Amino acid sequence: VIATCNSLVSILAGFVVFTAIGVLANDLGFSFDDLSLAGPGLVFIAYPAALDQLDTAPNFFSLLFFFTIFFLALDSAFSIVEVVVASIHDVPSVTRNIPRW
Q: Cα separation of 91 and 80, whole Å?
């Protein structure tokens, strides 16, 4: 069930992203192929421009989008720190005097 929901949300997100890029290209007078947006350009340029064109509550959806990006970055930072802490914890000389629970 979780894998199916994950796949469906990923497909929906793909439709949203390509629709946003298509609308942005149409409004700017470019073809879809002329816009070479990927990575940070897509996240911080194209998608906020598409959110700005919403008719209902663009500020709310922009705030929601950037909170999502913030929590994604925070989660990535936790995973990076976890690797470093686990590596230090695996060294026997470092953790010899730490009491075990």
A: 18
**HEC sequence for 8-63:** HHHHHHHHHHHHHHHHHHHHHCCCHHHCCCCCHHHHHHHHHHHHHCCCCCHHHHHH
Query: Does the predicted TM-score (pTM) go above 0.90?
Result: no
Q: Residue 20, Cβ neighbours under 10 Å: how many?
A: 19
User: pLDDT by residue for the chain (101 residues), tens digit each?
Assistant: 899 999 999 999 888 888 888 888 888 787 777 776 777 777 787 788 888 888 888 889 889 988 989 998 999 999 889 988 888 878 777 666 666 66
Do 62 and 56 form a contact (C-beta atoms < 8 A)?
no
61 contacts 35 by C-beta, under 8 angstroms: no
Cα-based distances in Å from 49 to 37, 53, 88: 13, 7, 44
CA gap 61, 37 in Å, rounded: 21
